[in-house]
Design brief:
Strand content: 35-45%
Helix content: 10-25%
Largest sheet: 5 strands, mixed
Distance between the termini: 52 Å
Radius of gyration: 19 Å
Number of helices: 2
Order of helices and strands: EEEEEEEEHEH
Structural class: mainly beta
Length: about 140
């Protein structure tokens, strides 16, 4: 591993309500003494805004990546297959003046480390309780 991700296991958690932008922060830590480059990809690019989505991390340094889920109509019965992948690799000293785009284009096979994260959506307990009430209590009570 080149970069360690500070998240719950292999998940990114987004806590609703989801009628507004919800942000999850992913902390990337360079666990090497060398400078590394990273980029963050998703299977649902229209649903998320990722800042920064790529960059450099000095040896032993950290970067916080904000992942912003765009507002949507949450359905707890809908299956969620959203995933993220953090790619990282040690930056060779002779590549430090190149653009990130050129560095990634010239990446040697086997030099890129992938870390996959699944998304999970959670509602605050108040919303779960309210939904139970709405589905099990007569309408005149609400």
């Amino acid at each position: 591993a080149v970069v360690s991700t500070q998240s719950t296991g292999n998940h990114l958690t987004f806590r609703g309500p989801f009628n507004e932008v919800v942000t999850s922060v992913l902390t990337l830590t360079n666990i090497t003494a060398n400078k590394v480059c990273f980029k963050v990809k998703t299977t649902a690019p229209r649903r998320y805004c990722v800042r920064p989505n790529s960059g450099l991390i000095d040896g032993g340094g950290t970067v916080e990546v904000s992942i912003m889920l765009q507002p949507f109509q949450y359905d707890p019965n809908e299956r969620n297959n959203h995933k993220f992948m953090v790619q990282s690799m040690v930056l060779a000293a002779d590549k430090e003046t190149e653009s990130l785009e050129d560095i990634w284009k010239g990446a040697e096979p086997g030099s890129v480390v992938d870390k996959k994260l699944k998304c999970q959506f959670e509602l605050p307990s108040f919303f779960k309780f309210h939904k139970i009430l709405r589905t099990s209590a007569p309408n005149f009570l609400l």
